[in-house]
Amino acid sequence: MPESLSKKESVSFIVDKLETLYPTVPVPLDHHDPYTLLIAVLLSAQCTDERVNKITPLLFERADNPYDMIKMSVEEIKEIIRPCGLSPMKSKGIYGLSHILIDKHEGRVPDNFKDLEALPAVGHKTASVVMSQAFGYPAFPVDTHIHRLAWRWKLSNGKSVEQTEKDLKRLFDESLWNKLHLQIIFFGREYCPARGHTPEDCPICSVIGRKDMEKKWIKMRKKK
């Protein structure tokens, strides 16, 4: 492997390495249809997938569809999802979007970005996850892991998740997006954490990563 790879070579190396490490990737959030996935993704904001997967069975036992969800009060939803954090905002979002799904979409989760992003508490990243994982639409949701690794691997400048998404979509073939974004998330958790990361021991950063990346990344995030 040459000391300095071109951008095209780096992209090819990343794809090959991730495919070797993660030939199959499960969806991290437990769900059984687009609605339960939407709710799980909403709950995952500033919360670990592991914790969300412990809470959603309790919520979905009471309501795993919008019709049953609106039978509960916002306060009841909030009490169930409290361990996920941001429960006041998330409970209002879940209750509100459930009403909208019934009133405007016949109780079904819409399969387009415009209608998804119009729902309460649903941003572009949440909509991208649902479009990708529920409907198979090519999307590249950028979470904190992907944003961090894209900068470490010199694929983006790290200034915003919006720019990172644009850069990754430009660099990687569309047919790879839905699987690749999950592969990067798994890789980030296992090999490339935000802190305590040793680039020399990382299967990808050791080849194409930035030097002194951890200190630079932490400093960059503190400025925002």
Structural topology:
Blueprint: H1 7-21, H2 34-43, H3 49-62, H4 66-69, H5 74-81, H6 87-105, H7 113-117, H8 124-133, H9 144-152, H10 161-171, H11 177-190, H12 205-208, H13 213-223
Helix pairs in contact: 1-11, 2-3, 2-8, 5-6, 9-10
Percent of residues in β-strands? under 5%
Which architecture of the largest domain per CATH?
A: Orthogonal Bundle
Element order: H for helix, E for strand:
HHHHHHHHHHHHH
Q: How many domains comprise the coordinates?
A: 2
| Helix-strand category | mainly alpha
Total beta-strand segments: 0
**Major sheet characteristics:** none
Please state the overall shape, judged from the principal axes of the Cα atoms. elongated
What integer value in Å does the Rg equal?
19 Å
Helix fraction, binned, reads: 55-70%
**Name of the level-1 CATH class of the largest domain:** Mainly Alpha
Q: What name does CATH use for the topology of the largest domain?
A: Endonuclease Iii, domain 2
CATH superfamily of the largest domain: Helix-hairpin-Helix base-excision DNA repair enzymes (C-terminal)
- Average pLDDT confidence is 92
Quickly count the helices: 13
Oligomer: single chain
| Uncertain stretches of 5 or more adjacent residues | none
Separation of the first and last Cα atoms: 36 Å
